[in-house]
Amino acid sequence: MRKTNFKVDIIPILFLTVVVCVSVIALAYVNSITYEKIETAKLDAFKEKLSVHFADMTDFTSNDANDCYIVFTNDDIAGYAVKATGSGYGGTIELLVALEPTNIISTDDLIIRGLSVISHSETPGLGDKITKSSFQNQFMGVAFSGIELSKTGGAIDAISGATISSKGVINGIVSSIEARFDSLVELVSSVEVS
Amino acid sequence: MINLLKNLKNGLLTENPVFVLLLGLCPTLAVSTSIDNAFGMTAAVMFVLISANIIVSLIRGVTPDRVRIPVFIVIIASLVTIVDLSMKAFMPDLSKSLGIFIPLIVVNCIILGRAEAFASKNTLADSIADAFGMGIGFGLAITIISFFRQLLGTGEITVFGTHIFSAPGLFDNPMSVFILPMGAFLVLGCLLATLRYIGVIESG
Question: Which pTM value belongs to this model?
Answer without folding.
Answer: 0.74
